[in-house]
Amino acid sequence: MALRPAARRFRLKALLALATATAMALRVAAAPGEVVFIAATNHTAPLSTFTGERLSGGIVKDLGDALAQRLGLRARYLSLPSKRAPQALRDGAGDLLCYTRPQWIGSDFLFTVPVLPNAEVVAARGDAPALHQLRQLADQPLGTVLGYHHPEVEKALGPGFRRDNAIDMTANLRKLMAGRMAYALTDHLVLSDLQRRHPELGLREELVVGRFVAPCALSPKSSLSLKAINAALKALMAEGEVQRILDRYAPASPP
């Protein structure tokens, strides 16, 4: 049944009010002496661990805490789904999004020096045949995370790239362990942490797709200085603090 004009106007006003309230909720400026980090909730251990919707641990939080301390600020974390995180950063909902790349969120941000090393890898079940090259994965279901882009795999497999999407990294590996597919795309840090905690699963790191060192992205609306952030990150790396954080969660370095 069609809405009457008055009802349509009321509904439109309600939707506009809801959108405005949501936008205002996101645009929470950092309080004096505070730096706000956006935490993407699609990440899993060891990168990020969440208690409910609150970031409670992991490499990203430890790096944020160390960076805030080096800057003489208090760290606050705003947890958001990965699809909302880039726009929230553009809108000034937070100052920094760490462990990201221009290829993932767009190039319209200021990016810090690279700080967190990792690698995109193919994980295999223990009973899966050995792989020697990506082309062997053509026309096979391959575990992926919804919204993630894999240009190297797309180039190698073309139309033979058969994605089997999961909502996040954890769900992707759970599907692999449940036998939904023989192989999944993941990252070295996540896989090595899982192998370390659960060797009985027999998961293998089969192929390295590409290596990278991820920076942080600075909001164009942040009052923080990119130069000061870079200086702080360089100091943390020079003093070995970043490596200590990595070793705390995943002693094996990316291959």
TrEMBL record:
InterPro entries: Solute-binding_3/MltF_N. Residues 1-30 form the signal peptide. The keyword Translocase does not apply. SUPFAM superfamilies: Periplasmic binding protein-like II (SSF53850). Pfam families: SBP_bac_3 (PF00497). Residues 36-253 form the Solute-binding protein family 3/N-terminal domain. Keywords: Signal. This is Transporter substrate-binding domain-containing protein. It comes from Inhella crocodyli.
